[in-house]
Amino acid sequence: MLQNILLLKLIKFCCVGFSGMILDFGTTSILKEKLKLNKYFSNSMGFALAATSNYFINRLWTFQSENSHVITEYLSFITIAVMGLLINNAIIYALNDRMKLNFYVSKLMAILMVTFWNFGLNYLITFAK
Questions:
Q1: What whole-number distance in Å separates Cα of residue 12 and Cα of residue 37?
Q2: Which end of the chain has the least Cβ crowding within 10 Å, N or C?
Q3: Span of 1-5, 40-44, 104-108 with lowest mean pLDDT
Q4: To the nearest whole number, what is the mean pLDDT of the chain?
């Protein structure tokens, strides 16, 4: 029973993450390609917008949080997301700068890896009941 609930939450978290990924990639692309801003700044801005959007959708849909301390919960979610961002940028650096993989392929791989980090910590800390 607990495994099914956890799996359902993971699936929902991934669906929310997919919507965030679209926002993330769109923002990153506009900033990097159209405005010619630094790829790490562009990546960080895309990630920040997606993380904020993901918090609110996950709060309502994935975890159905009724925690009245929204600011504290949001800060926990964002702290985990920022740690995930550091991991994300390190992966992009390794894959794109060092191994010369395409930037967006590297970014996609980083997102996939960081998803499990974000879900696990948010399940255990941010939205723990």
A1: 33
A2: N
A3: 1-5
A4: 94
Helices (H), the chain: 2-29, 39-57, 70-92, 103-121
Q: Report the alpha-carbon distance of residue 125 to residue 119 in Å, rounded.
A: 10
Angle formed by the axes of helices 39-57 and 2-29, nearest 10°: 140
Nearest 5°: phi and psi at 120? -60, -50
Q: CA-to-CA distance for 90 and 84, rounded, in angstroms?
A: 10
Please, are residues 41 and 31 in contact by the beta-carbon 8 Å criterion? yes
Q: What angle do CA 50, 58, 116 make, to 5 degrees?
A: 75
Query: Does residue 118 sit in helix, strand or coil?
Result: helix
State whether the Cα torsion 111-15-121-73 is positive or negative.
positive
Measure CA of the first residue to CA of the last residue in the chain; give whole Å: 17
Rounded CA separation 79/96 (Å)? 25
